[in-house]
Amino acid sequence: MKIKCAFKIFVFLITINSFSSWGKNDVESQLLVSPTAISFTLEGGTSEIIVTSNTRWNINNSASWLQLSQVAGNSNTVIQVNATTNYTNTTRTAELIINIPRGQTRRILVSQVPAIYPSYNTSPIAPDATGMSSNAIQLAANIKLGWNLGNTLEAMNNNTTGNETAWGNPVTTKALIDLVKASGFNAVRLPCSWNGYLADSATAKIKPSWLNHIKEVVQYCVDNDMYVLLNIHWDGGWLDENINPGKQDKTKAKQKAFWEQIATHLRDFDEHLMFASANEPPVDDATKMEILNSYHQAFVDAVRSTGGRNSYRVLVVQGPGTDIDKTEKLMNKLPSDLTPNRMMVEVHYYGPSQFCLLREDATWGKMFYYWGNRYHSTTDASRNATWGEEDYVVAEFQKMKAKFVDKGVPVLLGEFGALRHTALMGDNLTLHLASRAYWDKYITQQARAHGMLPFYWDEGSIGNDGFGILDRKNLKVFDQQVLNALIEGAK
Question: At 274, phi and psi to the nearest 5?
């Protein structure tokens, strides 16, 4: 009995010892991972997983679209996780499972939104600096006075289908661009629609015929030794109406798809051609500004990715609403660019709005017919400007000079102009037209004095409440008074 009892005690002690040893080893085994979830954008890219462990571990990865820098180890490790671009049209997910002996397991959920549209950067070429020697500052010095081909290449039927003549202007011809050059302008801004000219909306493929037509118009300008600014304008609002987190991925995808096509098709033009990301993106807070920055970044990356002369082309990004005050407050960084010193900022100016834009009195203010300290009416005083005159213009333009121009970033005044109220009569009409011409001269003069490049907004209308200075249908100057003012202001 004593021998059996001793044996049982011996076995019991061994068993306890074994359990104690097993528990001790289990406590000492360590496996921690961070993060526990990874989200990739549609373009893919690289992320990191930090494995903290003092024992052997391995990773099970069944997703072919994920590549890991390491799948096993026995110590603390940083693992690079690479995801390819997602062309599946759906969000894809994967689970990375990390194991160590004795069954400890950690899981990392990986997700990626779809690219939505195919890549159109199908023929990138090596960078080509031929004819691209000017940086943004040098190029800006060559631009004296610009003109907008407004309400034409961006015109659409019901904001959906592109139609160059839908808003009353004729199809753009070489003869018109020759007239622009002969009138004293050496630069042209081409507001343009692309979403209205799709061969396939599901893939965002632009019609080759439209790309060819735009190339033709650009060529008219370059043949006249004129600089060209080509943009994506309102275009039905696909960008402007989607500056929000829920639409960010899809909007970036369309921006990328469009600019890969535009940039590739126009890649052979020299530095006379500049690209502009958008028109007047409506942004009024820091959150939306960050989203707009991502759209500008998609634009820059898409253009640069096509190579050739696009590797050196000057690119233009728009301030929030192209509003000077909002741009000064919110635009505190520019997109990253592999090519330094090849970027400009764009703002517009229609101030005061009661003088420049109102076609009838509003609840918040009456129309101004007369602007400038020497152009106020003594008989129609209720229509004199009460704000936004010379000192205000200088103060506004100085904001852009201090924020950008003085730091080596040229600012393009992509639009400016004041409506012509020819329904007025007699002396009132005479004074109004003189005042308007003075406004155009002063804005042009002060823009250039503050390092800004003036592009007059001409939408082709030569009737009452129009901006037009060229009669496009008859190919002649219509408003010589304002044309003279612009030329004088640009000297």
Answer: -120, 150
Beta bridge partners of residue 413, listed in sequence order? 347, 454
Q: Enumerate the H helices of 183-285 as residue ranges.
A: 208-223, 248-265
Q: Output 107 or 17, whichever has higher pLDDT.
A: 107
For residue 477, which amino acid is it?
V
Q: Phi then psi for 249, rounded to 5 degrees?
A: -65, -45
Q: Which residues of 463-481 are buried (b: 16+ CB within 10 A; e: fewer)?
A: eeebbbbbebeeeebbbee
CA-to-CA distance for 262 and 319, rounded, in angstroms?
Answer: 22
| Total-model pTM | 0.83
Residue entry with tokens 């010589």: 480
- For residue 302, give the nearest of 333, 272, 266 by alpha carbon: 266
pLDDT tens sequence across 153-171: 999 999 999 999 999 999 9
Strand, coil or helix: 163: coil
DSSP 329-369: HH-------SSTT-EEEEEEE--SHHHHT-SS-BTTBPPP-
Note the pLDDT tens digit of each residue in 292-301: 999 999 999 9
Residue 458, φ and ψ in degrees, nearest 5: -115, 110
Calpha distance 289→243 (Å, rounded): 9
C-alpha–C-alpha distance, residues 308 and 446, integer Å = 36
Q: H-type helices in 126-207, by residue range?
A: 136-142, 174-182
Long-range contacts, 457-460 (Cβ 8 Å, 24+): 457/148, 457/150, 457/348, 457/415, 457/416, 457/417, 458/147, 458/148, 458/149, 458/150, 458/417, 459/148, 459/150, 459/151, 459/167, 459/169, 460/150, 460/151, 460/152, 460/167, 460/168, 460/169
Tell me the DSSP string of 190-216. Answer: E---SGGGEEETTTTEEPHHHHHHHHH
